[in-house]
Amino acid sequence: MLQMRDRPGAGAVGVGLSRAADPARAVAEAAAQLDLAQSCFVLVFVPDRMDLGALAAALGGTLAGLPVFGCTTAGQITPEGYEDDALMMLAFPRAHFRCASMLIEPLGPCPIEKVSADARKLAAQFSHSAHWNRLALIFADGLSRQEDMLVAALAAGLDDLPVFGGSAGDGMNFRRTAVFQNGAFHSDAALLILLETDLEFAGLGFDHFLPTEHLMVVTDAIPEERLVLELNGAPAAQEYARLVGCPVDQLSPEIFAEHPVLVRNNSIYHVRAIQKVTGDGALAFLSAIDDGLLLTLGQGQEILRTLDQGLDVTDEAGRAPDFILGFDCFLRKLEIGQKQLTGRVSEILRDRRVLGFNTYGEQHCGVHVNQTFVGVAFFEPRRRVLA
Asked: Where are the transmembrane segments (predicted)?
């Protein structure tokens, strides 16, 4: 089994990888690298080229009897760094983890009161092991436009339980995104996983943007579709293009990645990423948007430095994480590729022991955000550190 402990100083999560195009072969190759008999559950991160029906059948056959969760992605973060075509399985050992899960379906429109009540009930039924720590993971259909309401509902239902997660992706296709539970892929759905672990953990969340003096007011929007029709009283794409100094017909995901808009919440700015320009000149967003919202054009900082600093976390004993479960926005990966920094970023991700996937959005501290790295750093149990 390939484990993170195979890297100097690393820990116990098992990693199975395959770059085979055939789903059955990919599952067999990845599963063969794992100690399934000692696993509590497996997370599967799926490249966009995979046939989901064939993949679900292969997972059900090979990993029968073991809880398997996961989602489609816009890229994977493997022990090699950024990848696009790898099927990755993470096996969480029973010695360190317990879990309970809940599928939220249908997701749109998000039934806030029901989601809150069901999450609260799941947490109450999930018996608490003495001296173990609790957190929650959320994976949501990245095309559902429901993550903002979903995260708010979970924050209300789970009280002070920290929730981290990412929106499922589909490469750069934006056709279908799905989460995996109970042997099947589900669109228009979200997957909540409650975790208990004897490992210590710390949450991470950071981006690399600072606000500029360029302000925009949403003067016409369709909130339920995350569409902005007008900014500052002008057609949205036209006004945005003017502020970033780019012709409207040259607006692209690469431009949006380098010039996001920010929303201020008290003293903190969150990124509201633009997905695309629609045929009628509106801007489609990847997070909640509404009439009257004040937006600030963001300016990027040095992404290598901010990434390395953001991942530079230690426990109370000054030790690096065993591993970091990471949810990194696909727009960050796009910008990194455009700047020809993929190799250097992958080196940082390897050195910092990051495993995870590229998302269509991230969930952190009760907020749905974009162009942000969100993660959970897991450290050795305190009793082992003190021994």
From this structure: none
pLDDT digits (tens, 9 = 90+) for 129-161: 999 999 999 999 999 999 999 999 999 999 989
CB 95 within 8 A of CB 353: no
Determine whether domain 209-299 maps to CATH 2.30.30.
Answer: no
DSSP states along 342-360 = HHHHHHHHHHTTEEEEEES
Over residues 357-380, the pLDDT tens digits come to: 999 999 998 899 999 999 999 999
Please state whether beta strands 68-72 and 39-46 pair in parallel, antiparallel, or not at all (unpaired): parallel
Reading the block at residue 286, the tokens are: 């990847």
The H-or-E segment that residue 336 falls in is helix 330-338
Instruction: Tokens for 329, please give them.
Output: 């926005």
- CB count within 10 Å of CB 340 equals 8
Two structure tokens written together for 29? 């190759």
pLDDT of residue 2: 41
Residue 194 and residue 208 in contact, taking contact as beta carbons nearer than 8 Å: no
Cβ-contact 194, 122 below 8 angstroms: yes
Q: Contact 310/204 with Cβ under 8 angstroms?
A: yes
CA distance 89 to 59: 11
CB 58 within 8 A of CB 316: no
CA distance 126 to 223: 36
Which DSSP letter does residue 319 get? Answer: P
Bridge pairing between strands 81-83 and 76-78: antiparallel
Write the DSSP symbol of residue 24: H
Average pLDDT over residues 343-354: 97
Pairing of strands 354-359, 76-78: antiparallel
Rounded Cα gap, residues 71 and 79, in angstroms:
18
Give buried/exposed letters for 164-187 (b at 16+ CB in 10 A, else e).
bbbbbbbbeeeeebbbbbeebbbb
Condensed to tens digits (0 to 9), the pLDDT of residues 180-206 reads 999 999 999 999 999 999 999 999 999
Q: Is 260 left (phi over 0), alpha (psi -120 to 50) or beta?
A: beta
Q: Which of 360, 346, 304, 355 shows the shortest CA–CA distance to 88?
A: 355
Give the per-residue pLDDT at 7: 42
pLDDT in tens, 310-321: 999 999 999 999
